[in-house]
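can u do me a favor
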């Protein structure tokens, strides 16, 4: 894992004086851990063991506690982003039953609310800030909360899934945006771009583990079909891998071992069976490598070796991709008229025409 060792991010004395010495020391230790080289490996292991043991809710609980601790006690809010990402990645097991996840982990919402409130008290005056997108997000929040009025029944409007989307895509996004607008303006002793790249790099590796675990559990089916295995959250995993795919090239400037990270994530992207992942992932990987060639001294020194390695790898990849996507790209058009992407678009237009003010809700 990429080293992110830096000097500790210390709390301003005005803020430290507002809390007890015990909480102050705990916050400083959490911050020191965040700035150490052990943060990402430790968080990955803490999420990976419950996943592989079939105790997903345990992993979610560990990450929720970590996120709330960093949210409440650490001045650098970026430290809370990685456990939050791992919560959503671990939650893929409940992709088809989000309501079930809410029932199993209904304690998360009050705990998160307490952490946010405690942060507002502890770091008062620095918790929220306006940004260029504040007005737009306020409008989105109003739309998500009021959407469906007059069309949805009270039972449907207040269902766990409806509240998750209405609040999560509206007021919660506005709250997070306001928090990060304040935090990202703070001075740091580390390179924020490098730290965020390491964060998404680690999230991409965990997504690789999720995809690999699907194939391990369905190995016999994979051997029989020799094609991509369907799982309901594959597009979700593909999206995360697309976000993380360029990150190894950022570190490729100094060390060639990150070529392996790029290759593993691209391979996992193909294993998802996502057609969007195949098309955009290939383009993104090629563009990332071109960028790395321009700015990586290591690649420039080893250009000839890399090109000799790239040619056979491309040939193997072409055969592999064709085999993995054979069941999805033959026997008809690339996208059927009955595909959900098409039907949802048409249904959205019909819903808007029927209720142009509040529409049908999320």
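np, heres the sequence
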């Amino acid at each position: 894992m990429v080293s992110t060792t830096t000097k500790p991010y210390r709390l301003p004395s005005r803020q430290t004086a507002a809390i007890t010495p015990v909480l102050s020391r705990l916050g400083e230790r959490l911050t020191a851990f965040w700035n150490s080289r052990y943060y990402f490996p430790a968080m990955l292991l803490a999420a990976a063991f419950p996943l592989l043991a079939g105790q997903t809710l345990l992993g979610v609980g560990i990450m929720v506690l970590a996120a709330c601790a960093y949210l409440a006690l650490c001045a650098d809010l970026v430290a809370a982003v990685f456990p939050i990402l791992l919560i959503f990645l671990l939650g893929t097991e409940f992709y088809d039953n989000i309501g079930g996840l809410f029932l199993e982990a209904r304690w998360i919402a009050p705990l998160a609310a307490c952490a946010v409130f405690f942060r507002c008290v502890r770091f008062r005056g620095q918790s929220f800030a306006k940004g260029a997108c504040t007005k737009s997000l306020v409008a989105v929040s109003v739309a998500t909360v009021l959407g469906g009025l007059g069309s949805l029944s009270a039972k449907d409007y207040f269902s766990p899934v409806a509240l998750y989307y209405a609040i999560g895509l509206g007021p919660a996004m506005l709250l997070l945006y306001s928090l990060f607008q304040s935090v990202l303006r703070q001075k740091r002793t580390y390179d924020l771009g490098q730290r965020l790249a390491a964060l998404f790099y680690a999230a991409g590796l965990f997504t690789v583990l999720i995809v690999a675990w699907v194939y391990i559990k369905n190995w016999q089916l994979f051997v029989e079909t020799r094609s991509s295995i369907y799982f309901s959250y594959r597009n979700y995993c593909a999206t995360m891998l697309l976000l993380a795919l360029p990150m190894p090239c950022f570190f490729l400037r100094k060390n060639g071992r990150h070529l392996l990270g790029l290759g593993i994530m691209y391979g996992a992207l193909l294993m998802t069976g996502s057609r969007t992942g195949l098309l955009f992932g290939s383009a993104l990987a090629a563009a990332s490598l071109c960028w790395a060639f321009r700015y990586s001294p290591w690649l420039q020194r080893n250009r000839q070796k890399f090109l000799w390695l790239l040619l056979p790898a491309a040939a193997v990849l072409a055969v592999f991709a064709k085999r993995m996507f054979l069941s999805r790209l033959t026997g008809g058009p690339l996208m059927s008229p009955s595909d959900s992407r098409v039907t949802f678009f048409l249904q959205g237009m019909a819903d808007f025409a029927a209720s142009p003010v509040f529409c049908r809700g999320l």
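The radius of gyration is 23 Å. hope that helps!!
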